[in-house]
Amino acid sequence: MEWVCEKCGSPIKEGSKFCTSCGSPIRVEQKAEPQRPVYTDGLAYRNKAELLAELTREQQYFAARITDYDEIIRITNEKINAKPPKTGTQIFVSGLTTTIGSIIMMILGVMFLIIGLAVGLVMIVIGIVRELKGNKPMAAFEQQQEARQARINDIEQALKQYHAAYGPCLVAYKYSDPKVIQTLISTVQSGKADSIKEAIHSMETDMYNAEMLRLQKETAANTKKAAEAASTAVTFSAASFVRGIK
Questions:
Q1: Euclidean distance between CA atoms 155 and 126, whole angstroms
Q2: Does the pTM exceed 0.70?
């Protein structure tokens, strides 16, 4: 590149501090190279526009594996909701409890005694038979749970490799589900957060509050059922007691 003096227009050598023709000092303008984004634990960024643009790119990238993310959720829910079969001991104890309860309920009516005794004795027999046969249903259930966990591990391993292949990423793997990234984008766009950390904190706070609300409603519903059952039992017992006096 040829350098010239700004004052007299004479050519000058690169690196010269003064013009050899007029003696004017040479002013060299240095242009700062644009800085690349610096990622710290996948959470740093330069401004909100860049943040949203990067989140959108990452959402589009991970959307290609949305079926895998959905499959993990489906299998996990299936695993959580799966109820193990009762062991022979559990059935035996339940039957014994039912039998004892039936004897206590004898004072409330012969019908309850007959039904309770029949159910209790049947459960005792089933429990003994299942224990003698080795409790195959429980073994089958455990195999199903192990198969589900193995499938989850395989999918997660593939997704972690896919996440690593993206390179420097604003979101950690556990937040890389496209639906989660969309939530983070919406949180930033709404003004509730100005950074990834704030967006993640806001999302997790909302999740916690929603779970607490669900548990409160579930507890209230169970309390109501228990109160109704207790009220019914008291009414029934009182009626039986009065009839017995008469």
A1: 40
A2: no
